[in-house]
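Hi there,

I know you've been waiting on this one. I reran it after we fixed the sequence typo, so this is the corrected version. Both the input and the resulting structure follow.
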Amino acid sequence: MNELWFLNNDIPTDVLSRLPTKTLLRLKCVSKEWHRLISDRSFVHLQLKKTEPLSGFFFQERYQWCNEDIKSISYIRVENLREEGAQVHKDTTLDFLPKSVVVAASSHGLVCCRTCSPSLDPQIYVCNPSNKDFVTLKLPSPDVGKSLALAFDPFKDPIDISTNFNVVRVCQAENETEDSDSLFSFDIYSSLTGSWKRSNEICMCKHNLYKNKGIYIKGIMYWMTDSDQVVMFDLENELSWLIDGPFPSTGFNSIPEICIGESHGHLHYVLLCEQGLQLWVLEDYFTSRWELKCSIELDKWEEENPQFLYKIQERVEKRVAIDMVAWVDPLAYKDGLLLMRVSSDVYLYNFETRKTKRLCALSLLGPNSLFAPIVIPYASSLVPVGCA
């Protein structure tokens, strides 16, 4: 009788749905009734309506001159930060997967990974690290140079019966007719059909894909390039577009540092240049219209953060060659928080409060952490990956 009352009463459902995912995962162990309620898809859908704060960042090293993947993955936890810095978990967050993986993308609590290369049987895993649930997809081909992105929106496509998602793989090929341009094609996997298809859409671009690959926002996917342009792909209509950044990269005396990310359902563009640290939000992708949301002069930024910034203006202006290591490197942006490397340490900067927190030493993340690491923001969720 007590069990029936609990499961059919709206009060515990309403109260529990307001709690963060991390707390709910612990509460599942209280009793069978609580476990059944918290695992129910209708409850998970209700709990998703509450904004989940950023949990942390996946950080994976890359070799500079080798295509072989580094298997080690670090997870930098940023929720409930301590004074002494962040908790860094090495090789444990995704250890429930059958094989070693490369983290490719995340979307609303789900993470997309591919098996490390070289591999005789290349696969893709779409998983939820919070509940250790995953599904396995076959890769159409083992080319590790292709970028993966994950499209999952539980508000557009409810999860009551199943968790529907798409994986998009961007394939880059040289254009035989125009030496200066490359051709980007798009392979799309649908969990509804369980199959891949090649889109008819082709995007011509003079540049290569760069860090923060595959960001999904309201039906649109974005990839940053190694210039000032962003590749956009409309998943539903299968249309691509090149978005110009707020400023052309040729308009600077030194090499600017850039990353893109999502906040409040909009694409954001972090720019570090001689003029300062700037945060732009995309207003219209067809006209490449950006609005400046925040701008801090470098001297002012150093004045506010003297404990880790030193001669920042001079250091930014001195980086005039691509082979020179940036002193400050914006690694990833999500919900107003910027993960960045400053010299040999990793910091978290809050654009709203303008506060900075040292998270850890770069050496803690591995010996190859300096060169273009893979950095993926993650917010935990209860979403199951398989069918009900």
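Quick highlight: The chain has a mean pLDDT of 88.

Best,
R. S.
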